[in-house]
C-alpha cells in the first residue's frame, strides 16, 4: 500500500515545516524534529531512519563527506532487501539545522532512543505520531485533499520525483541513491553499472531545493535539549 502514496505538494511542505513546532522549536523528541527533515533530504524509508545508530552517521574518510550509512548490521535493524543498504550524503541544510551536532552530543547507541522497537520495527511508534500530528485535519492537515493518499512514505516519492523530473537524473543513479535495484531493461544497467561515486551523490543531493520549504524559518535543533531528551533512554531499545 505504501507504494501507492502521492508526493507531497508545496502546500503540504509549507504546512508541515511551517508549523509552530518547526518555527518556534517546540518538538519534544529529536525524532519528531529530525525524521521528517531526513525523509525530505535523503529519500530514505521511515524505518531506515528510525532505526539508525550513532555509528551510522559519520564523515567518510575517503571523501570527507558526511553520510548516513543505511544497513542491517545489528539484529534490531531491518531492510526490506539487502540491496537497500547504501550510503546517503547528508544535505547541508540538515547540518545547518543541527543534525550532526545532535548526533555528536547524544550518549546513546541509537540516534533516536525514544523510539521503541515494535513488531514493525522502530518506525511504528513514529508513524502513529506523524499521522496524528501532521495529517490530522485539526493539526496541520497535510495531504488530506480530495482523492489524495499521503503519509510519511510521501517524502520518498517527493524526493524521487525531484531527482527524476527536476534534476533529470538517469534511472540507475536514482536507484543507487534511494536503494532501488535499477529497473532499466538493459542488462548492462542491471548487472554491470557500479554505484555512483559518493562525491557525485553529494553534489546531486546538495542541489535539492523544494518549493514551499524555507529552511531559514525553521528553528535549529537546540543541542541543550539533547541531554533532556535522551537521559532516560540509555539502554538499547528503550
Task: Give your account of this protein's structure.
By secondary structure, the protein is mainly alpha-helical. It is built from twelve helices and three strands; from the N terminus they run H-H-H-H-E-E-E-H-H-H-H-H-H-H-H. The protein has helices at residues 10-17, 20-25, 30-42, 46-50, 92-96, 99-105, 123-135, 153-166, 171-178, 187-192, 198-206, 224-230; strands at residues 57-60, 65-70, 86-89. Strands 1-2-3 form a three-stranded antiparallel β-sheet. A hairpin with a 4-residue loop joins strand 1 and strand 2 (65-70). Helix 3 (30-42) packs parallel to helix 8 (153-166). The longest helix has 14 residues, at 153-166. The model is unreliable at 184-196 and 231-238 (pLDDT under 50).
Low-confidence stretches: 184-196, 231-238
Spatial order of the strands in the main sheet? 1-2-3
- How many H/I helices? 12
Helix content: 40-55%
Strand content: 5-15%
What class would the helix/strand composition place it in? mainly alpha
Radius of gyration: 17 Å
Per DSSP E runs of 2 or more residues, the count of β-strands stands at 3
Supply the key terms.
single chain; mainly alpha; 3 strands
Write a concise synopsis of the structure shown.
It is built from twelve helices and three strands, in the order ααααβββαααααααα. It has helices spanning 10-17, 20-25, 30-42, 46-50, 92-96, 99-105, 123-135, 153-166, 171-178, 187-192, 198-206, 224-230, and strands spanning 57-60, 65-70, 86-89.
What is the secondary structure topology, with strand pairs?
Elements: H1 10-17, H2 20-25, H3 30-42, H4 46-50, E1 57-60, E2 65-70, E3 86-89, H5 92-96, H6 99-105, H7 123-135, H8 153-166, H9 171-178, H10 187-192, H11 198-206, H12 224-230
Antiparallel strand pairs: 1-2, 2-3
Helix pairs in contact: 3-8
Amino acid at each position: 500500500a505504501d507504494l501507492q502514496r502521492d508526493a507531497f505538494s508545496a502546500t503540504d511542505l509549507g504546512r508541515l515545516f511551517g508549523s509552530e513546532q518547526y518555527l518556534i522549536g517546540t518538538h519534544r523528541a529529536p525524532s519528531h524534529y529530525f525524521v521528517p527533515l531526513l525523509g525530505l533530504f535523503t529519500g530514505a524509508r521511515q524505518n531506515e531512519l528510525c532505526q539508525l545508530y550513532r555509528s551510522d552517521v559519520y564523515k567518510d574518510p575517503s571523501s570527507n563527506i558526511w553520510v548516513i550509512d543505511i544497513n542491517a548490521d545489528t539484529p534490531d535493524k531491518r531492510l526490506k532487501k539487502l540491496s537497500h543498504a547504501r550510503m546517503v550524503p547528508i544535505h547541508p541544510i540538515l547540518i545547518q539545522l543541527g543534525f550532526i551536532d545532535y548526533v555528536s552530543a547524544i550518549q546513546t547507541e541509537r540516534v533516536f532512543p525514544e523510539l521503541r522497537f515494535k513488531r514493525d520495527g522502530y518506525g511504528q511508534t513514529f508513524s502513529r505520531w506523524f499521522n496524528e500530528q501532521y495529517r490530522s485535519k485539526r493539526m496541520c492537515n497535510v495531504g488530506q485533499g480530495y482523492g489524495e493518499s499521503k503519509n510519511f512514505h510521501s517524502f520518498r516519492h517527493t524526493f524521487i520525483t525531484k531527482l527524476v523530473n527536476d534534476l533529470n537524473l538517469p534511472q540507475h543513479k536514482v536507484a543507487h541513491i534511494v536503494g532501488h535495484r535499477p529497473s532499466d531493461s538493459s542488462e548492462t544497467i542491471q548487472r554491470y553499472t557500479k554505484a555512483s561515486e559518493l562525491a557525485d551523490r553529494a553534489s546531486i543531493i546538495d542541489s535539492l531545493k523544494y518549493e514551499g520549504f524555507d529552511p531559514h524559518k525553521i528553528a535549529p535543533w537546540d543541542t541543550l535539549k539533547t541531554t533532556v531528551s535522551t537521559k532516560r533512554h540509555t539502554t538499547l531499545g528503550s
